[in-house]
Amino acid sequence: MNAWHGTSPYGAAVVYIGGRNRGCAQPQLTAGWVGSVSAAGWKLVPLYVGAQPPCQTGNSPEKLTADTATALGTSDGSDAVAKAGALGMRPGSTLYLDVEAYNTADTGCADAVLDYTRSWNRAVHNSGYWAGFYGFASSSAAGIAQAAAQNTPDLPDALWYARYDGAADTTGSFPFAAGLWTGHRRAHQYQVNQKESYGGAGLTVDRNAWDAPVAVVG
């Protein structure tokens, strides 16, 4: 982080704060680390890998069902708040829920995902945090956008969509109705697995165009 600060074009980094489907434990992600990199000038985007869709392929440790979606959303949302707070991310921070791709033609699956997401959002809001959502433009994010177009309540305050079109913006590339998530509440993951080196430190990164709220630290 020190090597890239000021030498790279980046000003923010995503941190996986929790969720049973998070890929690794990340013992070095501590309140001390968050405070240190924030003081150095970095912004942080807290991402929570919650329960995944019942129709999703793969072996996610936690999957929701139509029967468990609401209860799981509440418990996972509360857990996300607890994890963020323990890292020094204060109320007012936006916590992003990671829902991976699934078959949107499966309406039962899509409805369960929406129930889970809305319940997660309510739990986050009840603790004074904002709710964000990360998903694929062709599936998980599309389901949320469809619900937003229908004025469904308890939806995310910010939308972070994955669309690998190489367009580093959140306007011309925005794949949904132009009136949705305006007012600096959009982010776009436009390229993945890019090998880059700055200040003598090499990393493989995913590139995002960001015009959305992040964590509030300190």
Detailed description of the structure:
Residues 3-210 form the Rv2525c-like glycoside hydrolase-like domain. This is Rv2525c-like glycoside hydrolase-like domain-containing protein. With 218 residues, the protein is of the alpha/beta class. It has a single domain (12-211), classed as TIM Barrel (Alpha-Beta Barrel), CATH 3.20.20. It has helices at residues 31-39, 69-86, 107-126, 140-149, and strands at 12-18, 43-48, 94-98, 130-136, 158-162, 186-198, 201-211. Strands 1-2-3-4-5-6-7 form a seven-stranded mixed sheet. The protein starts with 11 loop residues before the first strand and ends in a 7-residue tail after the last strand. The model has no long low-confidence stretch (mean pLDDT 97).
Question: How would you summarize the topology of this molecule?
Answer:
Layout: E1 12-18, H1 31-39, E2 43-48, H2 69-86, E3 94-98, H3 107-126, E4 130-136, H4 140-149, E5 158-162, E6 186-198, E7 201-211
Parallel strand pairs: 1-2, 2-3, 3-4, 4-5, 5-6
Antiparallel strand pairs: 6-7
Q: Summarize this, please?
A:
The protein has 218 residues and is α/β, with parallel strands linked by helices. The chain contains 4 helices and 7 strands, in the order βαβαβαβαβββ.
